[in-house]
Sequence to fold (525 residues):
Amino acid sequence: MNYKVLYRKYRPSDFENIVGQDYIIKTLKNSIKNGNISHAYIFSGPRGTGKTSTAKVFAKAINCLNSKDGDPCGECDFCLNFAENPDIIEIDAASNNGVDEIRTLIDNVKLTPTNGKYKVYIIDEVHMLSTSAFNALLLTLEEPPAHSIFILATTNIENVPITILSRCQRFDFQKIKIDDIVNRLKTVCEKESIDIEDEALQEIAELSDGGMRDSLSLLDQLSKNGQKITLELIEKQIKTISQKSINDFLNTIEDNDFNKCLEIINDYRMRAVDYKTLIKKIITIASKKAKNIKLNGKIQRLNDKDYKNLVLKLAESLTKININVDSYTILEMYLLDFFETNNSNQNTITEEEKNVIIEQPKEMQEESIREENRKENVKIDNSLIDIRINNCFVGAQKKYLEEAKEDLSNYSSSINITGKIKAIMLDSTVVAASNTNLILTCKNEHNIDTANNMLNTIEESIQNEINKQYKLIFISESRWQKEREKYIVNIKNKVQYKLLDEVVKEVDDNIAINDVFDKSKVEII
Ligand SMILES: [Zn+2]
Fold:
């Protein structure tokens, strides 16, 4: 059997196949085309991002007998015999004999190349060299022979002496984008006839954290037994946690379901999921949520600050894992703390607020904890979106809905409606209506913020066109589903909806929706 591990087999042999480092490749190719080659380079960046592969292709291209456009031809004697070429010298500074090899290298550096134009020295993990090895290397870099080129690679540029750095042309390799990794993996799977589901491709790419080599090693490992590669297989074999699993976990927090949260943690514990990896993933996803909520100004049960607090708590839990206790127990306690803080914040409703939120029958207040959760949903957040949804429900009737549909259909088809408003109207559907308030959903989430940022403009335009005074609010379809369910529960429980004052009267179209919803600016009278 001539089995080659995938990452070796698919190691790029030309610039074109190096993924995700376009700027670096372009610069290197240009320098070859222009014959403007330095004697020392340093490639820094995370593992598996293509530093050594790039160094090798570069070494090939500068020696190639008929390089085209900066690329190695792949056909000349030099290209064909590249792997055995004695003029390409690779040293791993992390290995034990690194220092000896550097000495030998420096002793022989004056010797001219046997085949090509240049002798190329690739020194991997160069930051691992001892001080004396660095000093010896520095002397060579200060006066390099014309035929020698040094390519230093490191995952840890901070530990490379500045004296060395100042002699080198520096290239910083970036983590490879998930999509780029997915595409490359897809190609490899097709060539190797590996059966894999799309979700699994995505998961492997995410797990390898921007490293191509790691992603190929993972693929290798997963493809060994010939089974179709699925998310379940990955979870089982790598003892890891899929994105979906993390989302389920975060949903328990979003749903305020501590029970379910503990269940999931216990599942991680039983599967001996690596604690650090798990927390790192949760932190990554929770911070993304926090940022998205802040950026989109969407309102949900947990806001960006809640997610920020969660992330900080989780990060803090990482500092405790050296204590000789099950890390998951520590996690549970941190989460317990989070749930408690989070709920006490939710319960601090002022007496004034109680008067303006939906009235709750007394008996409801004495129900079980599960009911408590539901009641929380009854609470109206004091934002314009929530107020307008509430106010629409106060007088919502089917006949108004039908009327509104017809009105907006007439309005949208008017020749005066163009541009942004037209796009919004075509994308939206009236889902609830009173005689004054309409709730609309947008298919395209992006339109929601745009629309809510220009409510005054749209409302005025409606009045001008069809002489109707509607107050609108735009929400996502998924939000509408939730609002509708809440509404049905409330109606069943005979909860009375009361009209809420809109305190944000003048919504300037130029003010971002975030500002409008800043709690300090929205007061309940
Ligand atoms: Zn060639």
